Amino acid sequence: MSRRLFQPMFGVVRPTRVISTITLIVLMLVVFVTDSLTQLGFAHGYLYIPIILLASAIARMRTVIIVTCCALVLNSLGYLISPEVDVDLDTWYVLANRSLTFVIIGATYVLLHIISRAEKSAAKNLQVIAQKEYFKELSDALPVMVWTANPDGTIAYVGSQLINITGKSSDYILEHWKSILHPDDLKRSLAIWDHSVATGEHYLVEFRIRDYQGNYVWMLTQAKPKYNTEGEVEAWYGSCSDITKQRAEQEQLRLLRTAVSRLNDIIIITEAEPVQEPGPRVVFVNEAFERKTGYTAEEIIGKTPRILQGPGTQSSELDKIRSALLKWKSVRAKVLNYTKDGREIWLELDIVPIADKNGWYTHWVAVERDVTREHNMEQQLQQIQRLESISHLTGGIAHDFNNLLTVVMGNADMLCETLTDDSQRQLAETIVQASERGAALTNSLLAFARRQTLNPTSVDIETILDDLSPLLKTAIGRENELIVKVEPHLPSIFIDHAQLENALLNLATNSKHAMPANGEFTIEASVSELDAGYLELHPEVEPGSYLLLKVSDNGHGIPSDDIERIFEPFFSRREDNSGTGLGLSMVFGFIKQSGGHISVCSETAADKGSGTTFCLYLPLIDSASTDSPSVSSADTSMPAQLTVLVVEDEAPIRQLAVNYFESEGFQVLEAENAEKALQHMEAQQRIDFLFTDVVMPGELSGVDVANVFAKRYPSANIMLTSGFSDKIVERETKDTPRYPILSKPYRKEQLMSQVSQALKTKSK
Q: Which residues form the Response regulatory domain (predicted)?
């Protein structure tokens, strides 16, 4: 019989199994032959029982069944072919003998079957026990807490780790597991569990359980169903993982992200390399980056921060940053970047490398502070300081030059009076005319230096603009249009009427050269409030309400590089060099000296709405302000027998003034400083007039001398003179009457006119 023939009956044929099978067949044939040759009545069917027992010992139960069936068949054949016995036996005896054999063989099989089933059941129970032990050992070894549940959702098993962390027994947890959950998490967790049990869906939830110390720890709990062959849930296998630390880290990360998102400073995190082109890629930006630059996180992540650089970004700062990055060093820099819409933004950068636990640098972190406002304030302050320095220098030069012009003009004037030769007198008059032109130039410089003599009065701006309109139209040219817009009921301003007109005419003249044909020159008047936000960018400005004159044109504008220099004296943008470069500097100085403020904005495009706009902020009238003493030049006759004290530290100017007064019949006392003037006051019972320079050497100024003189001679007259109207005049006279001031250089006619008017005013 082939191996394939034996396979269906005996399974996979092995050598030992073949031998066992052959042995069983041989034994059964031996018993059959013996039974066939034995006389009927002496049945040997019992001999099949050892063979069946042998089969159960060496083969599987299927073989036992085959052997048993063969034994029954062979026992029946043996009954049919065995010879009859010699003695007379009843048939029932023979049948009973054979039937008993059948019963015993069948009983043997049944007994063997029962024993086999019992052994299988015992083996299965042992296997289940072993599996449970293995499952317990495995669950105890796992880093998670293991548990199982029945199909109805009741807990069937909990691992030792869950027992250890709760401090409760297994039986307690199985019965009262709900009691160890945090009350705030119980309802939600049960609802999700009931839903999973009802639907067979994966169970996943986070909740807190109480540990043996009474503290609550966070658990990530999940479970999946196990199905039997019929597709029914057989059990639930679940686990609990302690995520308390992860939750704390997540909370810290959330707080960190929230804090970073609330920061007003930009934070950028990039990869560590490449430092060279194209640069490290961005992996994170905070909300401040989006607010400040206009780029979204999606637009910048994966790109290099160099997207923020532009034409004005300083190459020196970029080289400094690149050099530090190549050395893996921290660096601080101030860089000009550009927003998405092209607006300039100044950023102060702090860039540091970040290393992993192995010390390998993996990222760069940049904290960037928007210092645009501070930068603009710094630039504004530098411009103010530069203009202030130029102002002091210009004012000092103009003052000294005025003193020289006073001597030249005065002596030339006296020569004109004494010379009889017409040609010589003509030469003297030429000197006077040249001196007057020099005086006009120094007055322009003094205007910029805010040291010119002003005569502020209460002025209605609407009246000023109405009266000035014809001159403005002439200044801008007939081909251009003048537009004047004045808000109704504007308050008056306290300012020098003539100088304000000159300032507006200067601006109009500049606009004429900047505007194309058919241009528009516009003046708008309104009240403006300069608040704290404006003052942050212009710290030199006093807060409060101002009359705003907005003077604008639609010309070609001023380049940004020139904006910072337009108020400097002798700076001119005219290509034909036709200007002196003093017009805007005079406007600047006049507005500043008047207690106001001037700003300029310009666009160099040729589109509509471009051009230049000057904003003139003029101080509103103060109820405490009074008009400066005005002097008429109509009458120069002098009373006789008057004594005048001339105080002047410059000897040539002092001598000139003495000559002027003596030529008009005054008795003159002269002093080169304040101390000498005080000595004259002590020595003289009567002095009718004091004529003193403002700026004097020593501790006392001319104003101090005037104040002492006014107390000693209350009925006498006082007049000041100066190469410029310095702040000392305003400071020293704030608590005293304001004295008339004669500006240098002056001629005899001007001096005598003001002296005459002062004497008449005093006598009234």
A: 643-759
Please tell me whether residue 720 adopts helix, strand or coil conformation.
strand
Residue after which a domain boundary falls, among 119, 151, 185: 119
Beta bridge pairs of residue 242:
219
| Collapsed DSSP state (helix, strand, coil) of residue 294 | coil
CA 386 to the chain's CA centroid: 32
End position of a domain, from candidates 448, 467, 499: 448
Q: Is residue 638 part of a domain?
A: no
> Are 266 and 285 spatial neighbours (Cβ–Cβ below 8 Å)?
yes
Strand order in the sheet with 361-370: 282-285, 266-271, 361-370, 344-355, 331-338
Residue 680 contacts residue 667 (beta carbons within 8 Å): no
- Do both 597 and 515 map to the same domain? yes
> Which segments of the chain have a pLDDT < 50?
1-13, 448-450, 605-609, 623-636, 726, 728, 732
Whether residues 285 and 365 fall in one domain: yes
| pLDDT for position 443 | 61
Specify the DSSP element, H or E, that contains 365: strand 361-370
Tokens encoding 640: 């006789």
On whether both 398 and 476 belong to a single domain, the answer is: no
The two structure tokens encoding residue 724: 């410029």
Whether residue 388 lies inside any domain: the answer is yes
- pLDDT value at position 607? 44
Domain containing 736 equals: 643-763
**Residue 649, C-beta contacts closer than 8 angstroms, at least 6 positions apart:** 672, 673, 693, 696, 697
In a domain, 257, yes or no: no
Residues 233 and 249 sit within 8 Å (Cβ to Cβ): no
Res 225: pLDDT: 93
Shared domain check, 169 and 73: no
480, 606: one domain: yes
User: What is residue 150's predicted lDDT score, i.e. its pLDDT?
Assistant: 92
* 684/680 Cα distance (integer angstroms): 6
Shared-domain flag, residues 654 and 753: yes
611 shares a domain with 485: yes
- By CB atoms closer than 10 A (0-12, 13-18, 19+), residue 738 is middle
Q: In the prediction, which pLDDT does 623 show?
A: 45
pLDDT value of position 151:
92
Contact 523, 461 (CB under 8 A): no
Say if residue 539 is in the same domain as residue 596.
Answer: yes
pLDDT of residue 762: 64
CA distance 121 to 118: 5
Contact 53, 67 (CB under 8 A): no
CATH code of 657's domain: 3.40.50.2300
* Of 25, 82, 101, the residue nearest 59 (C-alpha): 25
